[in-house]
Design brief:
The complex is a heterotrimer of chains A (about 400), B (about 300) and C (about 280).
Chain A (H helix, E strand, L loop, with lengths): L1 H21 L2 E7 L4 H17 L3 E7 L2 H13 L5 E5 L5 H5 L7 H6 L2 H4 L4 H4 E2 L2 E2 L2 E5 L2 E6 H7 L7 H13 L3 E4 L6 H14 L2 H8 L8 H13 L12 H9 L3 E7 L3 H6 L7 E4 L11 E3 L2 E5 L7 H12 L1 H11 L14 H11 L4 E3 L2 H4 L2 H16 L4 H15 L3
Parallel strand pairs in A: 1-2, 1-3, 8-9, 11-13
Antiparallel strand pairs in A: 3-12, 4-5, 6-12, 7-9, 7-10
Helix pairs in contact in A: 2-16, 10-12, 10-19, 19-20
Chain B lengths: L3 H11 L3 H38 L2 E2 L7 E2 L3 H7 L2 H17 L2 H12 L6 H13 L2 H12 L5 H10 L12 H26 L3 H9 L4 H12 L1 H17 L2 H6 L11 H10 L6 H32 L1
Chain C lengths: L10 H18 L1 H10 L3 H5 L13 H5 L6 H32 L5 H13 L3 H13 L6 H25 L3 H10 L3 H12 L1 H16 L3 H6 L8 H11 L4 H21 L1 H8 L6
Helix pairs in contact in C: 2-14, 5-8, 5-11, 5-13, 6-8, 8-11, 9-10, 11-14, 11-15, 13-14
Classes of the chains: A alpha/beta (about 400), B mainly alpha (about 300), C mainly alpha (about 280).
């Protein structure tokens, strides 16, 4: 008996002693960076952090991009990592409200992030506190086929009216003026967001997504009236098409324009387009009196409330917020850094995006499904999809959305 | 049987009080044999059914604490267009899925011959049932895809524009059901082929002598003998129709704009999908689906119970 | 025999039947054939719009490409890791329960039996939220064990139905004789009944293998990520990555379908015996 006890004790001591001797603290990071570019960016980020903090070992657990959105619910409550990435705006609200994210206002304070990450402050703040650190964002806008424009002999549109009149020319050539693939719903929301930002402006759009304006409001109807103008020139059956399939419409010259986020550039180029054939432009003006607002979703890193190593996690956040770190990381990602002292890669689409975003005096929206709460977002995007196929259902759609609004924002 | 040597051994070992112990043993034995299976079934099936019903009275996002809301999830269902769409689609599924039974019977009759290679034919006709519904869904997505799908091209050749079945809210459910029928017909076919094997040849001969032929023979002589096969075909087809989840999820995600939802998918959407996490509301939908299925399940069980007693 | 044997009909009818057979088969398997051809079509054909013509060459390399830069192999392996233990577990448990319900007369016997049968038919959705919670709480969320445990429990319902009916059909005299000889209950199960239910075990094994291999719903509810997800869920997420690359989707689909298909063709007799249990009386 005694011998057995002592051996057990020795074994126990041994198991404690080993990590203590190495003096390495572990930091667990869960991420959805499963695509090649984000994966490389995170690997490089972790390497940099470990070089600066040799006593910390970062263990990365990469999830499938789609699966992550449901997995996060489980690991936050069950097996919490020290760091997890997510999205800004209303998308993080459920976790903040449920007490699943740690308040990191002190990280913002100590590192003067309110200045350097100022552009994202609003979307990271709930109840006057900050709940994570943003590391990247990317612009939305119109990607177009330059050759098709040349063939049609039309000018780049500055206004929505010009855009529509170009559409007629494209139609004569048998080319769809606007293409998209709304099988996954969200691509339609990009079109709606821009039309609303251009028709009613940023403040209205924010009030709409936060439930303060009825969907049956005439100003909302005005947005759909603008949308209706372009529907005859939009690709058919978009509800059955994936966004990547719609990319090939642009690549093959079957369509001229595509309202998309900058992440799609890689897909366009995979299809064979180059900087000479793929163009990017800001969404045209509808109401010239409204200050120009843009859409740029922000990706973030958070410390779950159940994190075991919060001290090092906060160090990690401070590291991610640094200007040079964000510069390097976003070069890998092919996206824009949040830190105002970072420099932007010399990719023409990034440069163009940076220019329109840094001069957007109206404001920067996240994206419909990040600005609006989940249920509203889902119902809204379904409504947009239906409207694109059946514009005359508009009244029924808006009434349905209004019903959802009254229920969702009640609590 | 050569069991006796093995049997005599334990008796020698158990020794004197054997009869008594055995009687006790025989009373306890079934429960011991049942324990592991029943326990697992209790933990993973029976208790969760009760828990789901309980959860349906709460508002719960799976993160924060549950809030008791009484019947309000059910009241909300009554005013939820998406719920009615799902219910309607479930009904369409249920009705059209039944087509698998006559089609299965037809193919079974067609294949019930003894020519060379017929066994291979039977296997190949049965093939779709063995494939996962995920693969069936992908196959049919490709078949229907606008722009390059075989079906789309065929309809384009016929009407000039082509029918994008999965993009149109009026046709999408039928498109998915057709995909679902493919393996289901195969299933019914195999049930009937087995049933046909056992049809009494003397009765057929007797009927033939009486001048019965074709449809008449089928209806009055063959089908009554196929009743057990038909019963199982109905059971698996009803359950299959109400369980339809995989195909909807793979082919359309319930779209376009929610028009191909069925209850099983809508429940998942509300409770677990990217924009969901309304566990209470999802549970309420599940309870409704459960209630609908219970109608059928009770029917089946009732019939089986009667047969059991008749034995 | 019904319908009338084709041999007894006119030569013309026989010929028509011989022609109709392959024609029907091709029509019946048309979607599958399309996918099979697409799976060996080079991507350049698809890019140029050659969707239906003869492939410009046979690109069997598509089947290799499926494994490149994708966790396809891992998904397949996970499927085996979930399926095989489930088959063993569910069949083992149901041998016990089936034996208990078929051999012993006790109060509640039929009730328990019908609870197993009814449980087997319930919609998955009524179990989803609590089972997921339970799995998370046990620390088994996103593990192969968690998924397999649930499958074992659920499939026990179906397997019990099957086993109980099979054992019930065995000659009662065997067990009676053994009891008269004074054989213990466990011995009866192990030495007398188990050897006799081998065909049932074989039939159940192939059936459960196919059911579990093809399960998609529970795979999406209880697992995420390539380390644990089986091929059904994996194929769906790869489908997201391979959009427009239909040659890969097709090749992947065919690979994913292979194990149950192989199982079916190898064990056809058992498979059909299992599936059609009760179709004849």
């Amino acid at each position: 008996m005694n011998i057995l006890k002592t051996t057990a004790l020795v074994a126990l001591m041994g198991s404690i002693a080993i990590p203590a001797m190495a003096e390495q603290r572990v930091l667990k990071l869960f991420t959805d960076a499963s695509d090649p570019a984000p994966k490389a960016a995170f690997e490089q980020l972790v390497k940099g952090f470990e070089a600066e903090n040799p006593d910390v070992k970062v263990e990365v657990n990469t999830f499938d991009h789609e699966g992550y959105k449901t997995a996060i619910r489980n690991f936050l409550t069950a097996d919490s990592p020290d760091l997890a990435n997510w999205y800004a705006g209303n998308r993080m609200a459920p976790f903040v409200n449920a007490g699943q994210f740690t308040d990191v206002s002190d990280v913002w304070e100590e590192n003067a992030l309110k200045d350097s990450l100022g552009s994202a402050l609003k979307s990271m703040t709930i109840d006057g506190k900050q709940w994570g650190v943003p590391y990247t964002y990317y612009q939305w806008g119109i990607y177009y086929n330059k050759d098709v424009y040349k063939k049609a002999g039309v000018e780049m549109p500055k206004t929505w009216d010009e855009f529509i009149s170009n559409c007629k020319k494209f139609q004569e050539m048998g080319v769809d003026c606007l293409t998209t693939g709304t099988k996954a719903l969200w691509p339609a929301a990009g079109i709606f967001d821009y039309l609303d930002l251009r028709t009613n402006g940023y403040d209205f759009h924010m009030k709409l997504t936060s439930g303060e304006i009825p969907w049956t409001d005439d100003r909302v109807k005005a947005v759909f009236a603008e949308w209706k103008k372009v529907l005859p020139y939009t690709t058919k059956n978009v509800a059955a098409i994936d966004w990547q399939d719609a990319v090939s419409n642009i690549v093959q010259g079957k369509a001229a324009n595509y309202v998309m986020g900058n992440f799609a550039v890689a897909t366009f180029k995979d299809g064979g387009m180059t900087n000479d054939t793929l163009g990017f432009m800001d969404f045209p003006t509808i109401n010239p009196d409204i200050p120009r607002a843009e859409e740029a979703p922000t990706d973030t890193i958070h410390i779950p409330a159940g994190a075991k190593n919060k001290a090092d996690a906060k160090k990690f956040l401070a590291y991610v917020a640094k200007a040079d770190v964000q510069t390097k990381m976003n070069e890998e990602l092919g996206q824009l850094p949040i830190n105002k002292n970072s420099s932007v890669g010399d990719d023409p689409y990034l440069q163009a995006g940076f220019k329109i975003l840094s001069t957007a005096d109206g404001g920067i929206a996240q994206f419909f499904d990040r600005d609006a709460p989940a249920q509203m977002a889902k119902a809204g995007m379904e409504g947009f999809q239906e409207f694109m196929a059946y514009p005359d259902h508009l009244d029924a759609i808006l009434e349905r959305l209004e019903k959802v609004r009254q229920r969702v924002y009640k609590n | 049987m050569t069991v006796s040597p093995a049997m005599s051994e334990p008796r020698a070992e158990t020794g004197m009080p054997a009869p008594r112990r055995r009687r006790l043993n025989r009373k306890l034995a079934p429960w011991l044999f049942l324990a592991p299976g029943v326990l697992m079934f209790l933990i993973y099936v029976l208790i969760p059914i009760g828990e789901s019903m309980w959860i349906s009275f709460f508002q719960w996002d799976g993160l924060s604490a549950k809030t008791w809301v009484g019947l309000s999830n059910y009241l909300e269902l009554l005013d939820d267009d998406a719920f009615y769409t799902s219910l309607k689609n479930n009904l369409i599924w249920l009705v059209l899925y039944m087509l698998a039974i006559p089609f299965g019977l037809f193919i079974a009759l067609f294949l019930n011959q003894t020519v060379r290679g017929i066994r291979i034919y039977k296997s190949l006709f049965f093939f779709p049932f063995v494939i996962s519904q995920v693969v069936v869904g992908l196959i049919f997505s490709w078949f229907y895809a606008p722009g390059f799908g075989l079906f789309f091209e065929l309809t384009k050749w016929l009407d000039g524009t082509g029918i994008a079945i999965l993009a149109n809210p009026n046709t999408v459910t039928y498109g998915i059901i057709a995909a679902g029928l493919w393996p289901q017909i195969a299933y019914c076919m195999i049930l009937y082929l087995t049933g046909l094997n056992a049809v009494a040849p003397d009765q057929i001969e007797a009927a033939r002598l009486d001048g019965a032929k074709g449809i008449k023979m089928l209806w009055y002589v063959v089908l009554p003998q196929l009743r057990p096969a038909t019963f199982i075909a109905v059971v698996v087809t009803v359950i299959g129709a109400l369980r339809s989840f995989d195909l909807v999820s793979i082919m359309t995600d319930g779209g376009p704009f929610g028009s191909s939802r069925v209850l099983s998918y809508y429940m998942y959407e509300q409770a677990l999908s990217e924009y969901g996490y309304r566990m209470g509301y999802g549970a309420a939908i599940a309870v409704v689906l459960f209630a609908i299925m219970m109608i059928f399940i009770s029917g089946f069980i009732w019939k089986m119970w009667r047969d059991e007693r008749g034995l | 025999m019904f319908p009338k044997p084709i041999q007894s009909m006119s030569p013309a009818a026989r010929l028509t039947y011989q022609i109709a057979l392959p024609v029907m088969l091709v029509v019946w398997l048309l979607p599958l054939l399309g996918v099979a051809v697409t799976s060996i079509r080079p991507s350049s054909d698809l890019a140029q719009g050659n969707y239906f013509g003869i492939p410009s060459y046979l690109a069997f390399s598509n089947y290799l490409d499926v494994f490149k830069n994708s966790p396809f192999a891992s998904y397949m392996l996970n499927s085996f890791k979930v399926t095989i233990p489930t088959v063993i577990g569910a069949v083992a448990l149901s041998c016990l329960t089936g034996f208990a319900l078929a051999v012993y007369k006790f109060k509640g016997n039929l009730l328990i039996f019908f609870i197993f049968v009814a449980g087997n038919f319930v919609p998955f959705q009524i179990l989803m939220v609590p089972v997921r919670e339970l799995t998370v709480k046990m620390g088994l969320y996103d593990t192969i064990t968690g998924l397999a445990l649930f499958h074992v429990a659920f499939q026990t319902g179906f397997c019990t139905l099957f086993m109980r009916n099979f054992i019930k059909a065995l000659p009662k005299e065997l067990i009676e004789a053994a009891r008269v000889e004074g054989v213990g209950e466990w011995q009866i199960f192990w030495h007398i009944v188990l050897p006799l239910v081998r065909p049932a075990i074989a039939a159940l094994s192939v059936l459960i293998f196919t059911f579990i291999w093809n399960d998609y719903f529970w795979a999406t509810v209880l697992t995420t990520g390539a380390d644990t997800q089986p091929i059904t869920a994996g194929l769906q997420s790869l489908n997201g990555q391979w959009v427009a690359a239909w040659q890969l989707v097709s090749a992947g689909s065919i690979l994913a379908a292979l194990p149950p298909v192989a199982m079916f063709f190898l064990m056809q007799k058992h498979f059909i015996a299992g599936l059609t249990l009760g179709a004849v009386k």
